[in-house]
């Protein structure tokens, strides 16, 4: 198992890659929807930001506090809002990361790492859920790269 600091470093590294892709995009590019009807870039980015909050507050934090979330709490956050303003998405990125950093900085020495929750995946403790989040964000980076490529292909045509 990784340490709390290893998990934090992983979260920060993947977020850096996410923001590199997010920052240069215009609102029009964020709102563009791929021809296959999938999520727009804005919806994907918004999902990433909302997902961090959801996972931290509904699964990881309760586990670390020794509280098992109900089995009905799963790794399925609310969907993003269509056409969210870029500033709104940035706000949720910043807010989610500030709150996650606060959790990491206040990491209790007696954090309960024995208590696990399935949440729709395998049984993991609170630290493992945070660690898994960076993998989830990495999955969405591949999705973002594909949609950006489709956007550029469409702009060139």
% residues in beta strands: under 5%
Indicate the overall shape.
elongated
Mean pLDDT: 90
The tally of structural domains comes to: 1
Protein structure class: mainly alpha
Number of strands: 0
- Regarding CATH, which class? Mainly Alpha
Distance between the termini: 48 Å
Question: Which fold name fills CATH's third level, the topology?
Answer: Four Helix Bundle (Hemerythrin (Met), subunit A)
Count of separate DSSP helical elements = 5
Oligomer: single chain
Low-confidence stretches: none
Radius of gyration: 17 Å
Instruction: Kindly report the name of the CATH homologous superfamily.
Output: dinb family like domain
Largest pleated sheet: none
Helicity level: 55-70%
């Amino acid at each position: 198992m990784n340490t709390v600091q290893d998990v934090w470093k992983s979260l920060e590294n993947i977020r850096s890659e996410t923001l590199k892709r997010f920052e240069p995009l215009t609102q029009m590019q964020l709102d563009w929807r791929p021809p296959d009807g999938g999520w727009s870039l804005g919806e994907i980015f918004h999902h990433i930001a909302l997902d961090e909050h959801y996972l931290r507050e509904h699964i990881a934090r309760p586990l670390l506090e020794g509280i098992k979330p109900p089995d009905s709490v799963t790794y399925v956050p609310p969907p993003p809002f269509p056409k969210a303003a870029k500033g709104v998405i940035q706000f949720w990125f910043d807010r989610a990361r500030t709150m996650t950093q606060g959790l990491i900085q206040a990491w209790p020495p007696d954090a309960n790492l024995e208590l696990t929750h399935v949440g729709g995946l395998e049984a993991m403790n609170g630290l493992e859920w945070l660690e898994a989040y960076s993998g989830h964000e990495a999955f969405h980076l591949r999705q973002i790269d594909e949609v950006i490529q489709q956007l550029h292909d469409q702009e060139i045509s």
